[in-house]
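[job 0412] stage=complex_fold ligand=adenosine-5'-triphosphate status=START
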Amino acid sequence: MTAISISREVSPKRRKLKKIGVFTSGGDAPGMNAAIRAVTRAALANKLKVVGIRRGYQGMIEGDFIPLKTSDVSGILHLGGTMLKTARSEEFRTSEGRRKAYEQLKKAEIDAVVVIGGDGSFTGALVMSQEYDISFVGIPGTIDNDMYGTDYTVGYETALNTVVEAVDKIRDTARSHGRIFFVEVMGREAGLLALTSGIACGAEVILIPESTEQNDELNRFLKKGYKSKESSGIVIVAEGDPCGGAMCKAEEVRKAHPDLDVRVSILGHIQRGGSPTAKDRVNATRMGVAAVDALLDDQQSVMIGITNEKIVLVPFNKAVKLNHCIDTDLIALHQLLNR
Ligand code: ATP
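[job 0412] stage=complex_fold status=DONE, emitting structure tokens
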């Protein structure tokens, strides 16, 4: 992926900010707390006041604000979820909702805001910043790792490890009973979590929305590979695969191969929770500090990304409109090892 980096040189005239807001929005992801902590402490170190906006855009509309001091973000670095809570807000999608949100920010004298969330949250920030005089900088927080312009999103690494741990356990049962398990992994539109976890678990087949070739792989495995692999197997299915998810695909296979012992496991919400990995903590911390830095540099409507281990700034309109393409080398690699 090409890095879309806006210059990170500190502008000669740092912006005179007094108070910033920070909030989490959309689905929760492990490492969001680490980002909140970093934003808060970096801002305080720069003599800014910090306000936590609770419950995403809905909390912004309702003025659900709490002042944040150093001690308020103590002891949260290792915790999953988000201390500020998160939400989805239909009201914020309306111009009236955004007007209320802006009035609440002005009333609280908040000059600029750090939004931690996915592409929907950044779209909301972009729309609001075009209507009102308020700057947003974003930190990508989503377990799908599907944002354009960054190699990494907060929470992805932890979710990946959670999936691998769960599938390793399922594998024990699959082997012991000679079963084929269809394991559904989160990712409505993006299959990266399914693909990387599948590779890490040695899954025989991985079904993802980005590639239809994998269906042939499944047929090959059912006809031939299954018998040669101790008559058991793991098929990872991304939630958003066009086959309709693990349940549908397993049903189809059961009908076509009544002799096989086919089972389904939908990992569900365990993938979102848990203590963030060291990498998620470190990257969320780097991004939190970079977000404050960007606001002080008068950057607006940009997402903080990490590309080739370096911090980059990506305009919101690119981050939300362009797709994060899946690495086809990873698909090829998996196919090579499962012929
Ligand atoms: P995830 O990847 O976990 O789904 P997300 O940030 O993409 O996270 P969304 O539910 O898509 O989650 O968006 C979060 C919130 O952002 C929405 O509930 C809504 O309040 C706001 N939002 C999304 N799209 C828009 C839009 N086009 N205009 C205004 N607000 C929006």
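The chain has a mean pLDDT of 92.
[job 0412] exit 0
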